[in-house]
Amino acid sequence: MNKTITIYCKNTRSYHDFPVGVSLLDIYKELDIKLPYPVVCARVNYKSQGLNYLVYNPKDIDFIDESKPAGMRCYIRTLTMVLAKAVNSLYPQSDVRIDHPVCNGYQCSLTNLDGPVTPDMVRQIKQQMDKIVAADEPIQVVEKHSKLVKQLFADRDDSKDALIDAMSEPYFRFYQMGDYIDYYDGVLMPSTGYLDVYDLIPYNGGVLMQVPDQYVPKQLAGFVEQLKICEVFKDFVDWSRLVHVGNVGELNKACRSGRTADLIKVSEAIQEKKIIQIADTICGKEHRPRFVLVSGPSSSGKTTFSKRLQVHLMVNGLDPLIISMDNYFVNRVDSPRDENGDYDFEDIRALDLGLLQQQVNDLLNGKEVELPSYSFEKGEREYRGNKLQLKPNSIIIMEGIHALNPQTLPDIPRHEAFRIYVSALTTISLDNHNWIPTTDTRLLRRIVRDYRYRHYSAHETIQRAPSVRRGEEKWIFPYQENADVMFNSALLFELAV
Fold first, then answer.
1. What is the pTM of this model?
2. With b meaning 16 or more CB within 10 Å and e meaning fewer, what string describes 187-203?
3. Mind listing the pLDDT tens digit for each residue in 115-155?
């Protein structure tokens, strides 16, 4: 008699019986679940699993399509493996490194080449990827003893060797596609045939892997030129390689060899040097601006950066004052709401733009203003007698997520404002093919900040994360190239902390 298990499917909101050892893919086909886009993985008891995952015990199962963040990450990991295999087939001595997300895609570099990446090379790699996808090659999960896995990767990828050592596990799971093997820190799709939207183009001395639009996965995410942010990424990636700490395994090796203190000091010194350069640039302008506008996504380090910049502007003989745009929030009951009816604090309409613009104009005209304060605990604006009037050596550092948006201060003369974009651009990776999303770093920061200063639980912060992300894409990222300079607030050792 065949044994059965009972699973609860969140998509159908009902219980179903299946044979023990059934795959998620078979469950999905049997239940004939209809989602807006193709299903690529599932959340099993709140943990993402590939569709080849076998179910032996009662579980809660939630099938995920490409439009969900977990589904898109699964898609991109699978696409990365196809790219890596294509490069390995054409250039066995080389490897592809996923450097960072940029331009609505992923900047990649090719290692150990005799010359630069050419358009013809990119075209050949794309054609090879197309062949792999057309063949619908199965992708299998394999688990072996870590020593054996290190031997399998030994001749091909040093970053895997360092990662396996860092994980210190007796057994190591990896993926296999034909005779090609690779490791990914997350689930992949069952086969290459699931990939139907992607492209590969030459960009910035390397390759840009173009991926589907998160919200409309049946089309490519639109290319957006981001040369400034590419340059910031490149500077930090080059520095990480210079000190031989480009991935987590190398960082762990450096710590074990007694280099921890030096890495911390050097990482912080690089940031301090950059802030000094920015302060000197501001003070060295022929017409010194009276406003420094600091923008960046949630938890990118805008406030901390502003305080550090304030110190170096003081060293230059100025009287800098910091104004947080958060203090111009409308009362919470008047805040705009998103499509789910929740408060949308990322929307520019969450700010009292009329008051902000009036006070900035008054300051520029020499008038005294009383600055508002916002109580996040009460959800209300307050006035506490904090008055301000610009002096000849005064300079205002105004920080907020909308600081670079032209709608925020449309009347301020260009020469009166110096614009800075701050973000936590994580440059360390797990290995060549596993990047660490900058959004993850910022989410960790936000969880801590919201709990300590805004009285939100970690659960509430995580629940709000998708809305925050949509707000960033709509209100912040489109204006980041408006910056005069960019500052990377990520520290090499931050995730370890």
1. 0.86
2. bbbbbbebbebbebebb
3. 899 999 999 999 999 999 999 999 999 999 999 998 988 87
